[in-house]
Every structure is written in C-alpha cells, then in structure tokens.
C-alpha cells in the first residue's frame, strides 16, 4: 500500500471508469511502477516538474498564437505531467478495431464516389449522403492512388463506465494534434528520467518516417526523389507549429498556397531557380479553401487549378478531397453497418448510440430526454455548437430546440457518455479528470499502421466532459506498454 | 529554395539591419541633444524614418522623449523598433524550419524585450542611452549568432544581400539628409560638431580620425561614407558585399535572370568605384545619391521579381 501526500485528495468519481484504480480502489497493475516512482517525489518536486514542462514548451516555441486586436499572444497547449497508461492488451484491441474501421471507411469512400452500391443496396440512405455539405460531386468517378482516401485518420475514442471503448468521432479530413503526441513524449523523457524504459513504454518516434514513406509511395511520377510538400494555411493558423514540426521531421518543404502555381494541369512550387514540379501534397488546408476555381472562390489559402491537376492524376493530395462525407456525424451512425457490408465482419469498436434528429420519432424521444443527451451539429468539430443537456439552462435548451427544428438534418443526439477519468497533477495534488484518446492511423499501400500511442486529451476543469483545447482542455503523454 | 523562403530571409535581415541603424542613430542623436551648444533638432532623423511627414516633424523635433517613444514603441509608426522587430520575427517564423534554433531564440528575446508591457514606461523614465544599449546588444547577439550558426548556403546569401542593401540605403539617406540644410546654411560646412555626430551615428568617427589628419571637413566625410572600401558602413563596402553574396547564388540560379541582376550590380559597383569626391560634386551630391539609391531599389525590385516570384 502506498501512503502518499499527493494521493490523499484523490477521490474516485463514482460511476466512472478510473484508469488508475480498480473498482475496489486498489491500483491497477499497469500504473504501479509510475505510482512507485511518484511516491518518492515530494509535492514540491512535482510542482517543479510542472514548471519545467511549461518552460520547455515555451522556450522551444511549442505554442499556438491567438490573434487578438492585431497582436499575437503566444499560448501553450496545457500539458498534464502524469502520463496516461494503456496496457498492451487494451492497445491490441484498439489497434485491431481502428484498422477494421478505417478499412471499411476507405472502401465506403471509394464506393460512394463511384458505383454507390451501398446506397443501391439500401444500407446507407441516399438523403444522408446527398444532403451532406462535404459530399463533393467534383470527386465523382475520380480515381485516387491505391484507392486510399484516408491516409491519416485521428479516430477519437472514449471509455464508458465499464471501460468499454467507444468511437466518438472519425476524423478523416485533416486531423491535428500529432505533433503534441511527439512533443509530449520528448517532454516526459526530461521530466521522468529512466521511467519510460523501466515501464517498457513503446516508442512513437517512427510516426514521421512512416508518414514520409507513405507520401513517397503516392508520387505519380516514378522517380527516385519526388517533391513532397506540406501545404499550410500559414503562420496565422493555430496549428502552424505542428506544420513546421512535421515538415522538419520529414524533411519536406513547408509551403503556403501562394508558393504553388498550376500550369497545364501540373502543380509547381516557385523557387529561386524557377518552377519545380510538385508530386505529393500533404495538405493541412480544408477542402473548401483548396481551389478557388472549384470551391470557395474567395479563398487565398489554396491554389487555383489544383483540382484539375488532381483529376488528371498529376499530383497526389493527402488526405483525399471529399472525405468529409465519411466523418460527418450523420454518416457516423452507419459505420458499423459499413463494416458488416464491406468486410462481412462484426465491428470491434462500438459506436456511441446516436439519434438522427431528422427522424420525427427519434427527435421526440431526444426532446423528452434532453437532460441525458448531448446534441451536436453534424458538420462541426472542436467542441463548437454542442449542447450538453445535463448542464444547459432551460433557455439554452429552448433556443437550441428551435435551431434544431429549422434544419434537423444538421443535428444528432447521443446519450451523455461519462468519459473515463485519469489522475492529473492539479494544484499540488492528484485529482481525477476526464480523458479521451486519439490514436493516429496511417494508411499506405502496405496497409494500415498505427504508432502505439496517441494524443490523450483531458478536460482540466473539474467535472467537465469536454476535452477540446478550445474549451479548456489539455493533453497528456500517452503510454502504450509492451 | 522556395521563393517565399528566400524572400523571408532577405526581409528578416533587412529589418534587423534597419533596427540596428535606427538604434544607433537614436543613441547618438539623443547624446547630441544633451550637448546644448548648438540648436539641436530631431528633424533629420524624423525625415528619414517618418516618410517626410512635416506636421509630425514640427510637432516632435524638439521633444527627445516623444521622439524616442515614436521611434521605439509606437505601433502606428511603420519604422518603430517594435513594428520592425515584429515584422522580422514574423518573417523568421514563416521559415522556422530553415533557421537555427539559436537564432530563432535570439529574435524571440529581442522581440519580447521590446514587447514587454513596461517598456513604454521605461522609455519615458529611464536613461535612454542605457535602454538603447540594451537593445543594441540584442542586435549584436543576433548578428553573432547568425555568424556562427547559419549554414553557408543560399539562405545566408539572401540574408546578407538584404543586410547590405539596407545598409547602403541607410548610409545614403543619412548623408543626403545631413547635407540638405547646407544650401541654406553654408556655415555648417565647417561646423565640426555637425560632422562629428554624423560620423558617430554610423560608427565612423574613429576611422575618420585615423584617416584624415586635417580635422573634420565635409569633403572627407563624403569620401569616407561613399568611397572608403574599409569602412563597413560605406556605400561602396555595402555594394561590394551585395555583389559578393549575389555571386554565390550563381549555381542556384536561372542563368538569364542571374546575368541580368549581376550586370546591374556590377554597373552600380563600377559607377561608385570610379567616382571621386570631385566627380560627385560635379554631378551634385544629392543627384548622385539619388541615382545610386534608384539603382539599389532596382536591384531590390529585380530580386523581388526573379527570385522571390512577386511580380
């Protein structure tokens, strides 16, 4: 038994899966070594580590900039020093489940932009697809290399009160946060020397090289050194740090829309020696802004004519355009059916039960039980435009209901899932806070690879269930044990 | 190298060089303002850096603290140290993966020093010389770090072209502005303090004393600032360096555009090299300086068009 100062205040939240404690309040085996290590540290030492972490983030410029009245304010993404630990058995299951899901989603995207068998066979209703703003007719009958649409997926997982993993969201467009997975590990190495090898934590360091290998393999020109670029919206984007980090780690050029130009359906970058052909674009610019000739005509983030080059097969774009139709929250409901339909397998990872509000019966059920529901917009992410039924006021609920009735297709509702909790070091003691998990899956011609780890986001506010950084969330290093 | 990246290096360096020039000029002029032997005025400094705003000149010319505030922390002034270092840093940020971490941290520190919330108050209350020295030190730190950490490649060439182009333009501006009032007031031609402060503000006083034994004379000042190969702030020294670093881009360039700009630089270099104080006086100093400045601007424009892909 450990008798520790920092654990005194730790009181498990009842009815919530705790990553560290068993039901009977004994420590789970995979947390023991960390607890033993922490028991030798005084609260003072831990506070020092916390300060060190902050300083490391700041001096290394691992920041995002919030622009306010013309001035940039540099902020760090809050980081909790206590790692989140996943056992090798848990990971094996998660890994298998994500591979299965991603395989089906890639098949779905190919199908939906070609023959649409899944609609003809009545598995996915046609109105869901055609009413989705991210279903892009420009992609119809367009062949992408190796039939891979989703090269990088950040599938968000949560755990219910019995520890079961659920998929909360499939992020198949431009999932972000992977640089924090890498940086958090670097920082943790400094904070807890020797602990990582002692615990047998699996490494995440391979991520950039796997991604690079996949990008290389997509080059339309069969040459030994294709030009690969990372297309960023520029320094004012909040994820700019991530873009530079990935570009540096892969050794590819970081470009902005204004660096590229399309001539005769070939994409070039403007260099000091003239134009250089670009073969593969890892873009961190959303579909809508990618090509002003085809999508949003006022966008200056993209490149005029890039869609034409893409259609001709002269350039590979990662992730493919039009993926939004597959990670739309209304399509999400049908992912388990897709897995059965395309793979003839039972889904391993469960979906959170989801109600479509365009269906009258389901809508009435949701309205009657709104205090137990989370209502979301189908095409929003980042925790925006959400209604948490249990925490909202009468008026907020009424206003939101009116919104829903205006356009029910745009809303779904899910029962409030009580996210699992993990210990966090907050104000000098360990306290439980709710967490999720976003592993990053990379899909290339050789199959799907997932580095053992991911981003654990944590709702740092006491009692909060929202982990998004825009809503006061932070992150933790994520350990997968071997 | 990506055109945008090259442009960022070039501008990063121009901004830093400009901040260096401004800081030194402020320091020396402030010093002069404390020497109340003659009528001191900030007008020339303001003329160079405020874009010929006469109302502003009239309002500020005799108020040192107000000038310092305007030139250091005023956000509305496109040439204040704060604006310049912010722009320099934005340029560096957009090429972060191309510059050494040390250099990035240096810039960050310089930026945070000026940006600090109490800096405004310090400009008002503290000893300005000490404050300016603190900032000059940041610039020196930047130059030292750049010197020992930057890879000897294209990026450094673009940085140095920017640096020397900016420096040449500054020296020309200072000389031009200082010689302006002479037509109305020929007595200045023999006013020793007047020339002394000019030389001090571009760090050329000591060299002058070593070179010319016969006291301070306008002709000699012109010679040193334009034609002295060994004076690091002279126009010819700067143009020589533009030539030197541009030459290093030869192998990484499109042959035609390289030849065109190389020709322009060579022509300008020869023009200055084969000038003398006498020939300059024949053309007229103001006229001569204007022509040289136009040539420098042209070189900048050509770089912009051919290398930075902004036409």
Give the biggest sheet of chain A.
5 strands, mixed
Roughly how much helix do the residues of chain A carry, as a percent range? 25-40%
Determine the mean pLDDT of chain A. Answer: 90
Q: Structural class of the secondary structure composition of chain B?
A: mainly alpha
* Multimerization state: heterodimer
CATH architecture of one domain in chain A: 2-Layer Sandwich
Name the average pLDDT of chain B.
90
Distance between the termini of chain A: 25 Å
Radius of gyration of chain A: 23 Å
Main β-sheet of chain B, in a few words?
Answer: none
Strand content of chain A: 15-25%
Give the low-confidence spans of chain B: none
Helices of chain A, by number, come to 14
Inertia-based shape of chain A: globular
Query: Could you name the ranges of chain A where pLDDT drops below 50 across 5 or more consecutive residues?
Result: none
Please give the radius of gyration of chain B in angstroms.
Answer: 20 Å
CATH topology of one domain in chain A: Dna Ligase, domain 1
Measured by DSSP, the beta-strand proportion of chain B falls in under 5%
């Amino acid at each position: 038994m450990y008798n520790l100062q920092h654990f005194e205040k730790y009181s498990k939240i009842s009815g919530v899966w705790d990553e560290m404690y068993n039901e009977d309040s004994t420590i789970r085996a995979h947390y023991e070594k960390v607890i033993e290590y922490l028991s030798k540290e005084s609260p003072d030492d831990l506070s020092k580590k916390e300060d060190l972490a902050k300083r490391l983030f700041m001096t290394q410029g691992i920041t995002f900039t919030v622009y306010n009245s013309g001035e940039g304010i540099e902020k760090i993404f809050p980081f909790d020093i206590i790692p989140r630990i996943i056992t090798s058995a848990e990971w094996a299951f998660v890994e298998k489940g994500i591979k299965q899901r991603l395989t089906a989603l890639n098949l779905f995207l190919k199908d939906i932009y070609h023959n649409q068998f899944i609609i003809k066979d009545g598995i996915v209703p046609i109105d869901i697809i055609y009413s989705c703003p991210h279903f892009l007719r420009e992609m119809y009958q367009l062949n992408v290399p190796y039939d891979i649409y989703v090269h990088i997926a950040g599938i968000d997982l949560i755990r219910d009160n019995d520890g079961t993993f659920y998929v909360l969201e499939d992020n198949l467009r431009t999932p972000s946060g992977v640089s924090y997975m890498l940086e958090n590990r670097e920082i943790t190495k400094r904070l807890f020397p020797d602990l990582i090898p002692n615990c047998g934590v699996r490494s995440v360091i391979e991520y950039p090289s796997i991604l690079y290998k996949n990008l290389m393999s997509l080059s339309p020109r069969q040459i030994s050194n294709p030009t690969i670029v990372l297309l960023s919206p520029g320094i004012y984007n909040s994820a700019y740090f991530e873009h530079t980090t990935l570009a540096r780690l892969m050794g590819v050029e970081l470009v902005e829309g204004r660096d590229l130009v399309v001539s005769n359906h070939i994409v070039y970058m403007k260099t000091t020696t003239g134009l250089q052909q670009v073969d593969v674009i890892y873009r961190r610019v959303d579909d809508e802004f990618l090509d002003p000739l085809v999508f949003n005509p006022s966008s200056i983030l993209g490149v005029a004519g890039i869609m034409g080059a893409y259609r001709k097969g002269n350039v590979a774009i990662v992730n493919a355009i039009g993926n939004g139709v597959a990670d739309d929250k209304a399509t999400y409901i049908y992912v388990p059916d897709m897995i059965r339909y395309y793979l003839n397998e039972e889904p391993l990872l469960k979906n959170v039960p989801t109600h479509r509000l365009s269906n009258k019966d389901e809508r009435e059920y949701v309205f009657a039980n709104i205090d137990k529901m989370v209502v979301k917009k189908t095409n929003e992410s980042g925790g925006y435009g959400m209604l948490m039924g249990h925490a909202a006021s009468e008026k907020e609920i009424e206003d939101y209901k009116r919104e829903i009735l205006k356009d029910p297709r745009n809303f779904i509702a899910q029962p409030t899932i009580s996210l699992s909790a993990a210990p966090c070091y907050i104000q000098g003691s360990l306290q439980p806070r709710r967490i999720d998990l976003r592993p990053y899956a990379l899909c290339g011609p050789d199959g799907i690879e997932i580095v053992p780890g991911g981003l654990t986001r944590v709702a740092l506010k006491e009692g909060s269930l929202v982990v998004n950084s825009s809503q006061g969330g932070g992150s933790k290093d994520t350990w997968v044990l071997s | 190298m990506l055109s945008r990246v090259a442009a960022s290096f070039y501008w990063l360096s121009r901004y830093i060089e400009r901040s260096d020039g401004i800081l030194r000029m402020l320091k020396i002029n402030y010093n002069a303002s404390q020497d109340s032997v003659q009528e001191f005025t900030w007008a020339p400094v303001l003329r160079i850096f405020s874009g010929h705003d006469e109302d502003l000149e009239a309002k500020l010319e005799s108020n040192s603290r107000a000038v310092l505030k305007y030139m250091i922390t005023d956000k509305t002034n496109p040439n204040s140290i704060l604006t310049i270092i912010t722009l320099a840093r934005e340029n560096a940020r957009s090429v972060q993966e191309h510059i050494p971490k040390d250099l990035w941290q240096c810039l960050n520190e310089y930026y945070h020093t000026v940006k600090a919330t109490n800096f405004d108050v310090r400009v008002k209350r503290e000893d300005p010389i000490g404050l300016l020295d603190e900032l000059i030190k940041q610039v020196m730190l930047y130059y030292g770090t750049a010197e020992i950490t930057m890879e000897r490649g294209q990026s450094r060439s673009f940085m140095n072209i920017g640096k020397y182009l900016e420096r040449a333009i500054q020296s020309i501006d200072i000389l031009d502005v200082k010689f302006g009032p002479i037509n109305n007031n020929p007595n200045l031609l023999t006013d020793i303090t007047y020339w002394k402060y000019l030389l001090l503000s571009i760090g050329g006083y000591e060299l002058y004393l070593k070179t010319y034994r016969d006291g301070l004379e306008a002709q000699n000042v012109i010679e040193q600032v334009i034609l002295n190969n060994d004076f690091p702030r002279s126009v010819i020294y700067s143009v020589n360096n533009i030539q030197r670093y541009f030459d290093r881009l030869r192998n990484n360039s499109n042959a035609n555009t390289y030849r065109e700009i190389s020709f322009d630089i060579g022509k300008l270099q020869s023009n200055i090299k084969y000038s003398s104080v006498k020939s300059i006086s024949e053309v007229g100093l103001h006229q001569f300086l204007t022509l040289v400045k136009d040539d420098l601007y042209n070189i900048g424009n050509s770089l912009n068009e051919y290398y930075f892909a902004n036409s």
